[in-house]
Amino acid sequence: MYYLHISDDFKRSEPVVKKMSCWLPAKSIDLSDYSESCEQGALFLLVDIDLSDGESINQFKKLVQSAPSTKEKFFVTYGKFQAEITQANALGAASTLPSEIKKPDVVKILRRYATQPKKKNWQVIPEKTTQAIEDIGLLNDSFYQAISSNRPLPKAQVISASNLIAESLKETSLVIWLEAIKQHDSYTYRHCMIVSGIAVAFSMQLGMRKVDLQRLAIGALMHDIGKVQIQLNILDKAGKLTPSERAEINKHPEYGAEILLKDAQFDDEVVDIALHHHELLDGTGYPEGLMGDQISDLVRIMTIVDIYSALIDKRSYKEPIPADKAYQILLDMDGKLDMDILRAFKPTALAAQISIQDTPSHQAMAS
Fold this sequence. Notes:
- The chain is an alpha/beta fold.
- It has helices at residues 10-20, 54-66, 81-90, 103-114, 127-148, 155-171, 174-181, 187-206, 210-222, 232-235, 243-249, 252-263, 268-276, 297-312, 323-331, 339-351; strands at residues 2-7, 26-30, 42-48, 73-77, 95-98.
């Protein structure tokens, strides 16, 4: 996963590429070497040309006219800010980035881009389902924006999304929900959608009261909120994580609890889920190595749903595991998972008879 960086002056562009490398690697080409074939495999184009230089502007226009781009174009601006934005817009910019790039600027663009699902098959998915899934993507963006600007988390938006998931699954099947999620590019966002849908479907199967169902849905939506503190180049890395990257990923439950405790808008059960959804009954989980009765029922449910959701999804190093085999893997974790809850989970697990394929292989680990 990378972006195509087009420049007319690599020395001038070097600081921009260096900053962007914190989130996403680049494939850099000179403006004169650009062709449509260069775009293959790139997420988007980052155009870093002198927007006050008529020669560079005309050269870019000619190249784009001769090889129309199918990718979104983001332009870097220097100095004459408004004039350059006007020129970038005239050249077809989706958005612009100031050369003095700051984390909120670039992550906002990357996350906005990452949350755009492929639309080609969505016409066969119920409207309420597509709306719920799109709302979850927007919710993850809102989490980042709130946290990065030290504003309260969007509680009303969280509650609305949790209710919409339940309404959607009353009208359609879990398979349809997962089929819609297949269209989504980002593993990190897709995992949240899978977990939320399966958690709500399981709650409905159990006949939970509305208030308990909503609490579990909110916990599912926010169980990985700590990942907003982790760089995208680690979260969506296409390949094996290094030990230091794995250690950073494993901090996300603690990051999540810190965020929720500071925000102080959500129930203790939601904080408990965020902090402890990787704990196991035998004490081999993280971050606190809890055992047995130290782990609440809601966390036990979320742990099962989280692991199962990761198993049935595709990753860079493995194909998705069929529902029945994924459920058997959970059964083989006797002593680590709550077997009574797991047996109750079986109908929901086997209802998800779908392999989430045809999606890019990202590695943000769920387990």
